[in-house]
Amino acid sequence: MDSTRIAAERCRRAFYRISSLPIDVRDRALGQVAKELTRHEEAIVDANRKDLEEAERNQLSSPLLKRLKYDGMKIDESVRQVEALIMQEDPIGRVLSRMELDEGLVLEKVSCPIGVIGIVFESRPDALVQISTLCIKSGNAVLLKGGSEAKRTNEILAKVIQGAITQVDACFEDAVHLLSTREEFRALLVLDDLVDLIIPRGSNELVRSIQNSTKIPVLGHAAGICHTYVHEDADLELAVRVCYDAKVQYPAVCNAMETLLVNGKVAGTFLPLMAKEYGEAKVVMRGDEATRRIIPVDEATEDDWTAEYNDLVLSIKVVGSMQEAVDHINHYGSHHTDAIITRNEATARRFMDLVDSSSVMCNCSTRFADGYRYGLGAEVGISTSKTHARGPVGLEGLTIYKWRLFGKGQVVADYAGQGAKGFTHRKLS
Amino acid sequence: MDSTRIAAERCRRAFYRISSLPIDVRDRALGQVAKELTRHEEAIVDANRKDLEEAERNQLSSPLLKRLKYDGMKIDESVRQVEALIMQEDPIGRVLSRMELDEGLVLEKVSCPIGVIGIVFESRPDALVQISTLCIKSGNAVLLKGGSEAKRTNEILAKVIQGAITQVDACFEDAVHLLSTREEFRALLVLDDLVDLIIPRGSNELVRSIQNSTKIPVLGHAAGICHTYVHEDADLELAVRVCYDAKVQYPAVCNAMETLLVNGKVAGTFLPLMAKEYGEAKVVMRGDEATRRIIPVDEATEDDWTAEYNDLVLSIKVVGSMQEAVDHINHYGSHHTDAIITRNEATARRFMDLVDSSSVMCNCSTRFADGYRYGLGAEVGISTSKTHARGPVGLEGLTIYKWRLFGKGQVVADYAGQGAKGFTHRKLS
Predict the structure, then answer these.
(1) Chain A neighbors of B250, CB-CB under 8 A
(2) CB contact (8 A) between residue B364 and residue A409
(3) Whole-complex ipTM
(4) Shortest CB distance from B386 goes to which of A114, A242, A374?
């Protein structure tokens, strides 16, 4: 689709202009966004009301309607988030290392923005504000696609943000661009010459479908199959409290526990205690044979070990050793977040070394795996990929680095062949 | 191809075993590799001689024959490289940051290996030794595919390395696996559930074809179209020396200059001086109209601006300003390495901010963009992608991080809703 290529080309040119804007300009642009959001509150709420009315006519489910709603309170929250983002350190231009290669030849590794980011998100209009301001802060240009049910809200939000940043500096023109149709976003996925990173925020199906249709790097996670393993030396009271939280506190999210692994030596004591608590919270439990010999639950089939219920459902397996738990997690898990409950720090560290997941935890709830809780500020997403960024990703995930080499006329010929000069390779502070 | 999946599954299991081996075991394995290479020198040279004989019968070009040759001297060089690798710091288990989220709840970000790496390389058998030892050092498992012309050499090298590391620890079984056919490597490219990173070391065509046929992240560069821009305030004598080196010292490589950009204000003085030097080195020059008004060279067409000659050929363009040079580089370049010649540091920094390339340089030759010269030790490759690793990539490019959270029974419910606990988010050293 030609219109998408044109939009992406404009966005790329905007990136070249904004990537070197000083932090005070980027922060002033964010300040203006906060102001303009407040100033246009009424119009935004109006647009959102129309989206909500249409969504109700289309009989959207009540959780979806709740996420779609963007009222005065939510606008205030967005404004507070933008203000908090202004307070964050500049992620750009940080000298990550300096080295003298030879006298008068100095190499610097310095953080910089990535380029053009394509982001697709579902339902929640506040995501548009969060994502575009994260991109402004980090000097990236962004192409956004929201859910069609939030069309009117997203359009006015994009317009308000574009207006605000362009007021501060004309460079920002085209730096935040809203794509209107799903076809436009699909067309974006093949523009690997113009788009540097895709971030999908939405259902597992959405993420998987995007991963399957682009060569552009995708930052995100398609599944969150998280485990807690209760070791034989666990404090069982602590284990009950943590496993309860990991499953029950908010089961619809990716960092909630889906499978409980229990060491056989404590299963007989632990599972009845745990099942009592889960029973009161109406958790549906499914267990392997050994579990079913201890507590009366439904049978877990092979499919249960790879299921992300996102609901008050839990699979339970009794294992003979920590290694068996590790093998189960590495085989069936999604490399998202997995925890061990143990009194022994060496055992915990061994588990954490062996489990190949973005977050590994000891004696606490998998639900902590989150950018805000990790102190990263706003969260770009949670990544289960093995390159670039892993786990909860903050602003830093929107940056990369470049190498700067300052010389005084040095040529490689002087360092080659007989009588060649040597490099000093001296680390500088 | 089922045999490739089986090999990749074995390699993945090997990764789970070796990823947590302490550095002394990994280093001892490398020491054993060095010993066994020396011990099997005769057999390796024999195998290589057979490859060379066949290659001669197949009338391989003389540069290819030279790269294929792996004699006693080259084996010694490989051994020295392995010994240097042993001396390098452990890239794994480094605590990159520590933060107290709340009392008794401590988060660590710690470096770890990536997983299973698929590497394809052409001709040079020393690449096999270099790559597999880099993977051993960094706790990664590796599937290798070399050029068919080096079949016998690669087979014995893989066998010697596998034998050496397995002697030190049985965990290493299957950690280094040689794929025999091109079909096997092609089959690997679809195994994104088992392979975490692909590194192609070879021609631009090879890299491009791999990038086009896999969803697995690819670390490398498809092209090296490097520029040097001579600014109006440049020290012209310095400019001549640096531009000569960037084009002439070794034109066949990716970091050699392909296009020279000259500010119109100095073109009249600079180009005749430069053309004289290039003429003596038999560099074929092609220029735009403005260039041709100053020196008698062939006409450069649009294709020349995107050509990677890898030869003693150079395109030349006269530009009106630094911004025009930057625009040309960002538009036609390959985001590899680009340099400015200027006396003004502010101008240099501005150029370096604006040019979107993995290495940006001032007053030195683009030929410096190289892992060894950058002090990275052995080089995994040079990356022009915008995520994970950029520019010359050393051992660090074979690592990622995981998050470790140590608690004492904390649950998320305590930090949610009314009367919730707050996070301290206190940075620890």
Answers:
(1) 412
(2) yes
(3) 0.95
(4) A114
The string of DSSP codes covering A181-244 is: SHHHHHHHTT-TTT--EEEEES-HHHHHHHHTT-SS-B-S-S---EEEEE-TT--HHHHHHHHH
Interchain proximity A413–B249, CB inside 8 Å: yes
Q: What are the Cα distances from residue B38, in Å, to A61, B26, B42, B165, B172? A: 70, 19, 9, 15, 20
B191-235 tens-digit pLDDT: 999 999 999 988 888 999 999 899 999 998 889 999 999 999 999
All CATH 3.40.309.10 domain ranges of chain B, comma separated, are 226-368
The CA-based diameter of chain B, rounded to the nearest angstrom, is 82
Residues of B within 8 A of A20 (CB-CB) are 350, 353-354
Q: Which CATH architecture has domain A2-219+380-402?
A: 3-Layer(aba) Sandwich (3.40)
Which segments of chain A belong to CATH 3.40.605.10?
2-219+380-402
pLDDT in tens, A355-368: 999 999 999 999 99
Sorting pLDDT into bands at 50, 70 and 90, what band is B5?
very high
Q: Tell me which chain B residue has its CA closest to the CA of residue A399.
A: B387
CB contacts < 8 A (A, B) = 243
Q: How confident is the model at residue A419 (pLDDT cuts 50, 70, 90)?
A: confident
Interface test with A, best of B403, B408, B421, B423 (most A CBs within 10 A): B403
Alpha-carbon gap: B233 to the closest alpha carbon of chain A (Å): 14
Distance of alpha carbon A338 from alpha carbon A316, whole angstroms: 14
Q: Closest CB to B407: pick one of A20, A353, A362.
A: A362
Least confident of A50-59, A340-349, B118-127: B118-127
Q: Do A403 and B390 touch (CB under 8 A)?
A: yes
Nearest to B386 among A196, A235, A250 (CB): A196
Q: pLDDT by residue (tens digit) across B323-352?
A: 999 999 999 999 999 999 999 999 999 999
- Please name the fold of domain B2-91+114-219+390-396: Aldehyde Dehydrogenase; Chain A, domain 1 (3.40.605)
pLDDT band at A1 (very low <50, low <70, confident <90, very high): low
Task: Write down the pLDDT at residue B124.
Answer: 86
| Chain B contact set for A365 (CB, 8 A) | 407, 410-412
DSSP letters spanning A128-174: HHHHHHHHHHTT-EEEEE--GGGHHHHHHHHHHHHHHHHHH-GGGTT
Task: Collect all residues of chain B within an 8 Å Cβ-Cβ radius of residue A107.
Answer: 374-375
pTM: 0.94
Contacts with B115 from chain A: Cβ below 8 Å? 356, 386
Closest residue in A to B374 (Cα–Cα): A101
CATH superfamily of the B226-368 domain: Aldehyde Dehydrogenase; Chain A, domain 2 (3.40.309.10)
B392-395: long-range contacts, CB 8 A cutoff, minimum separation 24: B392/A403, B392/B359, B393/B219, B395/B88, B395/B91, B395/B134, B395/B137, B395/B138
Q: What is the pLDDT of residue B122?
A: 83
A40-67 pLDDT per residue, tens:
999 999 999 999 999 999 998 888 899 8
Tell me which of B253 and B378 has the higher pLDDT: B253
